[in-house]
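This week, work through this protein record:
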Amino acid sequence: MSKEQQTVIKTVLRLAIASVFAALVCIATLTIVISIPATSGYFNLGETVIYIAALLFGAFAGAIAGGAGAAVADMIVAPQFALGTLIIKGVEGAIVGALHRKIQKRSRYRSLSAAIAIIIGGLEMVAGYFIYEQLVLGYPFAVALVEIPFNVVQMVAGLAVALPIMHAVQRVFPQLKS
């Protein structure tokens, strides 16, 4: 098999993985929807799948899964957030995937590198929605502030679920560790 064929196969595989995770993010996001009346936003469990995709398959899968999957869910539940979600969750997934890989090269502790990456990516998500609600949606500062605790809990729940799943998948498929 030529190098070009190998490159095409790797690219198709990466796109397929990212697409499957985008669908899973959408499903996870829509499974539990807890409305936040002050902002018309909602608490969900999509973060968990974004983190799993990013930790197992890297920045590209995390970005596509986070951005596309969550934005499609927003088009159904809260369309005013869809554009912001596409960017915010896409960047979040990319940050988690890239940081995890970078930190993992310097540390033997996968859980620590994953937790640090999730916290930093999650804080981007929290800040991103806070800014989006004020600048794009025109919500007053106090209203945008209401959603911060929900987004922090969403990040922490995602971390709590994603870490054990990452370890379980890597035990079954050790080749995903590299």
